[in-house]
C-alpha cells in the first residue's frame, strides 16, 4: 500500500466511485476511502444509493407492483391467479441480493482499474493530505496531487419522531420491514416518502402521508403534480398537506400528533417512516487547518467545476449545491476527473432529469411552467394524455400526461414534464432534445414508432403548435 496517489477520493457512492473509475481510465493512481458498512458490519462500495437508497427501493417497488397486478389487474387480462400469497422476507431477500450483486460489481470494477479501496474514515488535512483511519487499526497520513470529496448525504432526523430502528424508521429502515404494517404514517410526501409509501400501500398497508408544505410536490410542474396526486389518492394513498408533526408517542400503537389548518390532530399507526429530506454528510470531513469552506447547512462551497476554495481539492454529489441525484453526482465525478487530466469536462445543470418511481412514474427535465412565469419568459405549452395512445391502452397503462414547454419566440424546448407509464425511460428523449437545444418543432417532426408510449411525447410536442393529431386542439 502506497502513501501517495494522484487522486484520493473520499466516499464510494455514485459520485465517488464513478469519478475514481474515470480518473483511473485517464491513467492516474487512485485510492478510494469509504466507511460504509452493511447491516452485518461488512464494508461495501456504492454508498447510500446502492446499499439503502436508489437500488433497493426500486427492487421493492418492482416486487410490490407484481403483487398488486396479480391481485388487482391480471383478471382483466383473462389471467386468474388463485391462492397467491405474500412472502415479505423473500421479497427483502431478493432486494438484498440485487444490492449485493451490484456492490460486488463495483468491487470488480475497482480491481480491473487498479483502484485501491481503503475501508475506513477519510479526513481532509492541510496541503492535500488525507488522514485515513481504518475500521481496525491506527490512523495514518496519505498525500495526493488532487482530492475529491464525495461523502454523500444522510437522512434528516426530527425531534418530534426520534428513530428507534424498529417502529419509527428512516427510508433505509422502511426497506427492511419483515411484515406489512396495517397502518403506516409517512412523515414527508416528497420523492422518498411517495416511493416508500407506494411500496407498502400496494402490499396492503393503510398509508397516510403527512407533508409540512402546503403545496404537493413543489419542485414538480403543478399541472403534473395535481394529476399525480389525483392518481395516488385513487390508489388509496392519503395525502395530507400543511401538517406539522409535533410528537410520535409509542404505546401499543404509535400516536402521531400533528397540527394542520383544522387544529391539533392525532393518527394511530403501527409504523412510522420519517422522510423529510437529506443533509450533506460532511461532519468530520475536514480538519480546521484544512480551511475547507462550507455553509451553515454543511454544503461544501465549489465553483462551476466543483473545485473548492482549496486548489486541487474538489467536492461532488450530495455535498455540493444542486439536486441530490445519483446521476448528477456521477457526472460531476466524471467532470472533475477530466479536468484534473487537463480535458474540458463540464456538466449541463439545465438538463438534469428527475424521476419519482411511483406507479405511474413522474419525470421531468428543465423548467416548470411556474418557473417560466416567475421569470417572465414567454412560452407555449402542449399536453397529451397517455390514454389517447394505442400502446398505453393495449398494456392497460392509461393514466397520466406529457407536457412540453417551449419558448414562444424561438420554439426552443425549455422543459418537459410527465406522469405516466415508463416516464423514467421516456424522459431521456426530452433530455437529449434539450441537450442539443432542439425546438418543439424538431421533436414534432421526429418520427416515433407506432404503437409506443413515446408517441405521447411526440403528440405533446405537436400540441405546442396546436397540431396534435389524436387530440382536439
UniProtKB/TrEMBL annotation:
A GO term, aspect molecular function: dihydrolipoyl dehydrogenase (NADH) activity
Intrachain disulfide bonds: 49-54
Cellular location(s): Cytoplasm
Something else known: The active site is a redox-active disulfide bond.
Signal peptide: none
Protein name: Dihydrolipoyl dehydrogenase
Binding-site residues for FAD, renumbered to this chain: 58, 122, 151-153, 318, 324-327
Location of the Pyridine nucleotide-disulphide oxidoreductase dimerisation domain: 352-461
Active site positions, chain numbering: 450
Any single GO BP term: 2-oxoglutarate metabolic process
Gene3D superfamilies attached to this UniProt entry: 3.30.390.30, FAD/NAD(P)-binding domain
Organism of derivation: Spiribacter salinus M19-40
GO cellular component: cytoplasm
Limits of the FAD/NAD(P)-binding domain: 5-333
Cofactors: FAD
Chain sites annotated for binding NAD(+): 188-195, 211, 277
Amino acid at each position: 500500500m502506497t502513501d501517495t496517489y494522484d487522486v484520493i477520493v473520499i466516499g464510494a457512492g455514485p459520485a465517488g466511485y464513478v469519478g475514481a473509475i474515470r480518473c483511473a481510465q485517464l491513467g492516474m493512481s487512485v485510492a478510494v476511502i469509504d466507511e460504509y458498512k452493511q447491516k452485518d458490519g461488512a464494508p461495501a462500495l456504492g454508498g447510500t444509493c446502492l446499499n439503502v437508497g436508489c437500488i433497493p427501493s426500486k427492487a421493492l417497488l418492482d416486487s410490490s407492483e407484481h403483487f398488486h397486478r396479480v391481485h388487482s389487474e391480471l383478471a382483466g387480462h383473462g389471467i386468474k391467479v388463485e391462492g397467491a400469497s405474500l412472502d415479505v422476507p423473500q421479497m427483502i431477500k431478493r432486494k438484498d441480493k440485487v444490492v449485493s450483486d451490484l456492490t460486488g460489481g463495483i468491487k470488480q470494477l475497482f480491481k480491473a482499474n487498479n483502484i485501491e479501496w481503503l475501508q475506513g474514515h477519510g479526513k481532509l488535512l492541510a496541503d492535500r493530505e488525507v488522514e485515513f483511519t481504518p475500521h481496525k487499526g491506527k490512523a495514518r497520513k496519505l498525500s495526493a496531487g488532487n482530492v475529491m470529496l464525495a461523502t454523500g448525504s444522510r437522512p434528516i432526523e426530527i425531534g418530534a419522531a426520534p428513530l428507534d430502528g424498529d417502529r419509527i424508521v428512516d427510508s433505509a429502515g422502511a426497506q427492511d420491514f419483515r411484515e406489512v404494517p396495517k397502518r403506516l404514517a409517512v412523515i414527508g410526501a416528497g420523492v422518498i416518502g411517495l416511493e416508500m409509501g407506494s411500496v407498502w400501500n400496494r402490499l396492503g398497508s393503510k398509508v397516510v402521508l403527512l407533508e409540512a408544505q402546503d403545496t404537493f410536490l413543489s419542485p414538480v410542474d403543478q399541472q403534473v403534480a395535481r394529476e399525480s396526486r389525483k392518481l395516488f389518492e385513487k390508489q388509496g394513498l392519503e395525502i395530507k398537506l400543511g401538517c406539522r408533526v409535533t410528537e410520535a408517542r409509542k404505546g401499543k400503537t404509535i400516536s402521531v400528533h400533528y397540527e394542520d389548518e383544522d387544529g391539533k390532530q392525532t393518527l394511530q399507526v403501527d409504523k412510522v417512516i420519517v422522510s423529510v429530506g437529506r443533509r450533506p454528510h460532511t461532519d468530520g470531513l475536514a480538519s480546521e487547518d484544512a480551511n475547507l469552506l462550507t455553509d451553515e447547512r454543511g454544503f461544501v462551497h465549489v465553483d462551476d467545476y466543483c473545485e473548492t476554495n482549496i486548489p486541487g481539492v474538489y467536492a461532488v454529489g450530495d455535498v455540493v449545491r444542486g439536486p441530490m441525484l445519483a446521476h448528477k453526482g456521477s457526472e460531476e465525478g466524471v467532470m472533475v476527473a477530466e479536468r484534473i487530466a487537463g480535458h474540458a469536462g463540464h456538466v449541463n445543470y439545465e438538463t438534469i432529469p428527475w424521476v419519482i418511481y411511483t406507479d405511474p412514474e413522474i419525470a421531468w427535465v428543465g423548467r416548470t411552467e411556474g418557473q417560466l412565469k416567475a421569470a417572465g419568459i414567454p412560452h407555449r405549452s402542449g399536453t397529451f394524455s397517455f390514454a389517447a395512445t394505442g400502446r398505453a391502452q393495449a398494456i392497460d397503462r392509461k393514466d397520466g400526461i406529457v407536457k412540453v414547454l417551449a419558448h414562444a419566440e424561438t420554439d426552443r424546448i425549455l422543459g418537459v414534464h410527465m406522469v405516466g407509464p415508463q416516464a423514467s425511460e421516456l424522459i431521456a428523449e426530452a433530455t437529449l432534445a434539450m441537450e442539443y437545444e432542439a425546438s418543439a418543432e424538431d421533436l414534432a417532426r421526429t418520427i416515433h414508432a407506432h404503437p409506443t408510449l413515446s408517441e405521447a411525447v411526440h403528440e405533446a410536442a405537436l400540441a405546442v403548435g396546436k397540431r396534435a393529431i389524436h387530440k382536439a386542439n
